[in-house]
Design brief:
This protein is mostly helical. The protein has 2 domains: 36 residues, no CATH class; 43 residues. The protein is built from 1 helix and 2 strands, in the order E-E-H. The protein is rod-shaped. Keywords: Membrane, Transmembrane, Transmembrane helix. This is Putative zinc-ribbon domain-containing protein.
Length: 81
């Protein structure tokens, strides 16, 4: 890992350090690259939700159609007497 220069005193500092050990200046804003991951926990949660809904929704529709058919048959047999 390459060291960076402190923006205030010029002392060589690790980019992971929150502040400069020499002068106390914040390093995070000056030299640290932001954490830009391609896959984040929020993205994984959204993907899991979409995938789950995509897999579960057809089964819910089939179940509702089956129950509606049962209800229709029950009404037909009850009124046929």
């Amino acid at each position: 890992m390459a060291l960076i220069d402190c923006p205030d005193c010029g002392h060589r500092v690790s980019p992971r350090a929150p502040t400069c050990p020499n002068c106390g200046a914040p390093i995070a804003a000056a030299g640290r690259a932001t954490d830009q991951r391609l896959v984040t926990p929020g993205l994984l949660g959204r993907l899991a939700t979409v995938l789950g809904a995509w897999l579960v929704f057809p089964w819910v529709v089939r179940l509702l159609a089956f129950l509606a058919g049962i209800a229709l048959l029950a009404v037909m047999f009850a009124t046929a007497r």
